[in-house]
User: Fold these one by one.
Assistant:
Number 1:
Amino acid sequence: MKVTAFLIASFSATVILLGSGCAVDSKRVKGSSGGYGDPKTWVAAAEAHEKQGDFQGALFEYRVARTLAKQDSEIKQSIKHLESQISKRTKKLIAQGNKAVRQGKISKARRLYLETLGLEPINKDALEAMRRLDEKSSRRSMQRKVAISQRNYKSRRKKAKANNGYGDETYTYSRQAILQAGNRPADIDGLIKELEKHITKYPNDLEMRSLLSKTRMGQAEKSFQAENYSDTLNYLEQAESAVNGDKKKLQTITKIRKEYGKGLYIKGLRSSRSEPKQALKYWEYALKFNPNDKKTRLRIQKINTM
């Protein structure tokens, strides 16, 4: 029968796979302790990893072996040698990545930095290089968005510009101010100032209203993570005001409000037994984020009657 044949084939494949396990693993299963108590087992595994170019895996195996044979000078020397190899390799990769950046080969540079982090996850040079690449990518993205927005707006308003009381040149200068503020990631206040100034002059610019709302929501997220819940509420209210009644965007903000409320509700549950006063504060804020949450309201009523 077909089912029987399938089962036989599956069983045979399983036996083949089990029988073809790596040499290192077969060594580890020998002996009463499964081989894991023998430092030679881990050294053999480390050597196998090193031959395959897996330096991190090899280093891990050597370090385990060292815990089993702390006085073994050969193991210590192997670790020292491997760490030196990793250091040389990471320096070479960093240099290649920096060269790729200078040549404008950003994808290649990113791959080289990631390979560095694969060898040494806390390599400061690679982490800093990746941060710079991400920041540069963010600036370019903002420039593209503003440029596209300017082109679209000019196209839509070309015939009606005389009736609106302003020309394309004035509008372009206003957009350029926003672009310059957006190019400074740390200057969020500057970006918001330029956005609000632009929207005051051009209240029907929906794209800039949306950008202002997203910026305010970003501020809300940071404030929430820092447990500055009053500021978070203010930023969300400003984000709602910026979208000027856009139902779809208001729904998105409402969803985020509920998520924040849920997070505070859970925090309150976790601290309700040991710190009931703190739990009450969490729930009171949760209700401000989501006034229609019945569970939070009941928790507040219950703790107030205790």
Note: The longest helix spans residues 124-157.
Number 2:
Amino acid sequence: MKSFFQVLSEDERHRVHEESLDILKTTGVRIETDLGRRILKDAGAVVDENNKIVKFPKTLVETSLKQITREFTLSARRPGHDLIMNKGNSTLCLDGNGTMVLDYKTCERRPATYADWENVTRLSDALDEIGVFWCQVEPGDRVGDIGGTVDYLCRVFRNFSKHIQEGIDKVDEAPWYLEILQTIFGSREEIRKNHPVSWLLCPQSPLSIDKTFTDAYLATKGWNIPVGIMPMPLMGSSAPGNMISTIIQGNCEVLSMICLLEANEPGLPIIYAPALAVMNPRTATPGYASMEFSIMDSAATEMAGYYGIPSESSPGGSDAHVVNIQEAYENAAMNLPTILSCPDIIVGPGMLDGSMVSSLEKLVIDTEIFRLGRHAQRGVNTNDEMWLTDLIKKTGPGGTYLLEESTVKAVRSDDWYISDLGSHETYDRWKEKGKKDVLEEAHEKVNQILKNHEPLPLDDDVEQELDKICKRASAMA
């Protein structure tokens, strides 16, 4: 029997939906993209061009929800790492676009470079629990023109061999992006079928859809690229000051984007992914170490289940500035409810200071927290062969199960989790091994992986074509 964490009752989930329908019909959403408003108007939305407000009839929302492809796979280049969505088999995804790193050699905080980006990407590629790439840190030395964008995209596929959740920022980058995908993954039909990449689109809170990033995605029409819809309403600031109303607003923002995307490309695969964050009332900045954050995002996973849509959850994290006890207990506390709500993707390992600072050691530690949480998620195996009542009767009072074949088999099964990080032995043995703490162990593991791990290489002919694409893009820039 699987363990689970529940926030909303069935009636409460239904009320969130009904309240959202009312807001979308009567208040609407500001749609900044001209193309988006035209698409929605043709689909039956009520559009006011003077203020760019779009109102959504109930029938439009319900039709859009029916069109969604719910069962699909996010593929990976590396064999065995495809992600079958809508099963609640959680995997980790890197957090997005921090600007700083905690240098793993000097422990100093500084702006991120391409070398840092490559380190965190390669480390993540080596950790099996991290199944999805999102840009963890934005390299400060990245060139900002089309040549820099094309170079960056090629680096992504060279350094990470599992699923890529990475899009583009501008419409004119779309042909380059699609050419790179075809070079690596084959024809448009193969890409449409296998979904080697997905995107995140982030409606702006409250109740707005931007132009630039949305138009960039709309320029890929016909490629069937799955979209995670991730508004980031901040409770008390860009969302109302309590949890249930923030959940409702986030749901409105997701539903409005679903309507636009399904009207543009019916049957598009959707991932329900709102990051329902909390304002720190003392500073008016996001409070990532907030249990409200974790609870609301668990509720969002339940709303994804209500709609029958795959889910991507952002449980919050730590406000700590360095890797320490505060960082550890905050991340463990924030992640456990999220993992026990069983989303398909969990965002956020490896980040400090409100997800602005990347730490390689923290990435290793957070992966271990995820392993423990996923073990809790599995719950108790109650298959018939697991009850062992006959063995209990045979062994009787005062006996031992130490030498039983069933014990040996169980230790090697999912019923047991044996960690290889931290101290799990006698004091004397720990002392003999140098009395290392977890941070030291994590640092050693980082060094070992960065020294030895090489991502799955691309074929030579693919590399040659990517080099040609990069040279053309650089020449244009």
Note: DSSP finds 17 helices and 20 strands in the chain.
Number 3:
Amino acid sequence: MKKFIAALLVCCLLTTTVSCSKGSSNNSSSTEAPSANSSKIAVDANKNMVSNTKSSALSSAVNLTGLENLDNTKHGWGQGTQVDKDNRPISCTQFQNKYGKYNAVFIKDNTKRIYLTFDEGYENGYTSKILDSLKEKKVPAVFFVTYDYAKRNHDLVQRMIEEGHIVGNHSYTHPSMPTLSLTKAAGEITNLHNYIKENFNYTMTLFRPPMGEYSERTLALAQRLQYKSVFWSFAYVDWNPKKQMGSQKAYKKIVGGLHNGAIYLLHAVSKDNTDILGAFIDEARKQGYEFAKLS
């Protein structure tokens, strides 16, 4: 009888151990659990789903099924040099008509409103001065950040938010989106989304594809994640700190690009952009333009 009871106890212990082991395995294979006060988006590679908890921006489960059937040919965006009678790049209007169905934005409406956006791949010491100018002139802007930038420059990102600017998603590691699998591409957006939500209590809704490289599939992916893909209708060679053209030439270039509904892409690493920003804002307003918040 004692042997029977002892054997029964051993069986019970083994059953309990196996059960706990299964629970641990499930936890380790899943994504990190969200904190009590933040939203968490997770990509489930097996179910081809993106799930989200307590997020105001995304639904509880976003199914990626069907996106794999869309064209994934990689395209690089540039507004080109041909413009219409209103100085609006012709390509922007064409691509807006073509890809607007995916909530992609290349140019805004033909009104006297313009929109400033800054890409933040790394900090070069100018962002605080740019923020100073925007604050002085009472102009809103979008700052597209990567994970590395946000992690290294917490105070600057916090200032962007506190001063009423939009912080946009520029991906987690800055890859060419069409070169990734659907789940990895989704992770580039959702991982940064989660980081910003958890560390700044801020929900991003605008996405700028790294290097302006996109495909029909990646545009649809961003839309499925309830993001708007933001391109631009004006940009110039300003991203290389060692090859700045000088403030006078840069000012002439930027002012010459003014047009209704313009989305300006400027890089915050540029000394020229920093030096001329205030004067550019004044000149644009002198010509009747209003600086609006991109949404």
Note: Residues 33-291 form a domain with the TIM Barrel fold (CATH 3.20.20.370).
